[in-house]
Amino acid sequence: MSLKKLSKLYHYVRCIPKTLFFNFYYLPFHQAIKLPILVNHRTKFISLGGRISIPESAKLGKIKLGFGRVQIADNKYSRFIWNIGKNGHIKFGHHIKVGTGSKLHINGMLAIGSGSNFTGEATIICNHVISFGDNCLISWQTLFMDSDLHKITDLENQQTNPDQPITIEDKVWVGARSTILKGAHIATNSVVASASTVTSQFDCDKVIGGNPAYVIADFTGKVFHK
What we know:
By secondary structure, this protein is mainly β. The chain has one domain: Hexapeptide repeat proteins (UDP N-Acetylglucosamine Acyltransferase, domain 1, 3 Solenoid). The chain has helices at about 5-15, 15-25, 30, and strands spanning about 35-40, 45-50, 50-55, 65, 80-85, 90, 95-100, 105, 110, 115-120, 125, 130, 135-140, 145, 165-170, 175, 180, 185, 190, 195-200, 200, 205-210, 215-220. The strands form three sheets. It has a nine-stranded mixed beta sheet with strand order 1-4-7-10-13-16-19-22-23. It has a seven-stranded parallel beta sheet with strand order 2-5-8-11-14-17-20, with no helix packed on it. β22 (about 205-210) and β23 (about 215-220) form a beta hairpin. This is Transferase.
């Protein structure tokens, strides 16, 4: 066996304790026994609240949390953070990876569709609703936040900045260091250029970018593959 394969095997063996704990903590026994969720041994659990939903047919290791290598990330010290409040609910599809150094702060509803891949160091702060469709590709150091994390009130003490959902439809590619804020809706088969800030709604088959983001190009009828 090659040194690379031995290193990979050693890495997975070290993940066994947290993987066992996580699956049997969050999932019913008939699902947990299959160990469908692999958890990196460097994961830091801040809060183990809320609940998780996965497909009944999910198989061994098809949902990976904290795995993968990103050239700009320190894979030894960039830890995966799990911080799920009591009202948090995460729905995973099939074949999902949330990469090394990512941070999940969830006290609302987060849905991640099948085949979606967060390459690394993504931050998701969800107090309301954030949904990702199938086969999305999310590059490194991206931020998704459906809340301002503070209240602004008017003279009648009414909140003027309520939380708003974020919707990312199927086959969306979000470039590195982009920020997706509350109220954003990115339709199917779209690309977000790196370092963009998205706060509004965009139709399908668009390339968007800028701060704030605007439509750069239209590729209706074309497809891209991750």
